[in-house]
């Protein structure tokens, strides 16, 4: 069969390249793309599109799975909160675009994986909320020790959960870089993973769905991780069944 197609929504960032070009660009780290490709999938980038906010199925019709990447904070308005002074959300369509895509993907039981910000998108799409600055909650900054670099800590996962099956174990090392976290859990979601050092939620999933998983860590930054590969495997199974 053809390789399964995994859609990755992108942010829009001001970028420079080839020494002479500087403008807004739709960008996503190649680590996400390469993780999908290593697992045998095709990565398709989805820049924010105002039309697709109202018509997300026009994009999803061409995909076998959805991968929500990390990035800047969600706008607190998306979950009914006032902005924290340290919340760094970006103007633009990305929040509304990704919330529309994930809601429609869940409705059609398409495999969905949310990474870091993507886990938070999944939670907010189901009516959940976020802690806007984790150090105020847990008293340390180990989840984002140095901005722009990944820290290491272990996560414990519920045996038999989708998170444990996707990660290949019930206690795993992870790459971490975040200062926000899920607060009130969205409708139907369950927390199935926690940081071993402070019990901060690190994995959420939607029981009864084909594959709907959010992980607070960054599997794309770890060449030994099998999490993104598990999404591609599920996408392949879905495509074969169709």
Please describe what this structure looks like.
Strand 11 and strand 12 (201-205) form a beta hairpin. The protein has one domain (5-241): Rossmann fold (3-Layer(aba) Sandwich). With 242 residues, it is of the alpha/beta class. Helix 4 crosses helix 5 (117-125). The chain starts with a strand and ends with a helix. It is 28% helix and 26% strand.
Summarize the structure.
The protein has 8 helices and 13 strands.
Alpha-carbon Rg, integer: 17 Å
Instruction: Please identify the structural class as seen in this structure.
Output: alpha/beta
Query: Can you give the mean pLDDT?
Result: 95
| Count of DSSP strands | 13
CATH class identity: Alpha Beta
N-to-C CA distance: 12 Å
What fraction of the residues are assigned to beta strands by DSSP?
A: 25-35%
Fold-level CATH name: Rossmann fold
Q: List the domain count as a whole number.
A: 1
Q: What descriptive keywords fit this protein?
A:
Rossmann fold, 28% helix, nine-stranded mixed sheet, alpha/beta, 242 residues, two-stranded antiparallel sheet
Question: How is the secondary structure organized here?
Answer:
Blueprint: E1 5-9, E2 12-17, E3 21-26, H1 30-38, E4 42-46, H2 50-54, H3 57-60, E5 65-68, H4 94-107, E6 112-115, H5 117-125, E7 130-131, H6 134-138, E8 151-157, H7 162-167, E9 171-176, E10 181-182, E11 190-195, E12 201-205, E13 212-215, H8 227-241
Parallel strand pairs: 1-4, 1-5, 5-6, 6-13
Antiparallel strand pairs: 2-3, 7-10, 8-9, 8-11, 11-12, 12-13
Helix pairs in contact: 4-5
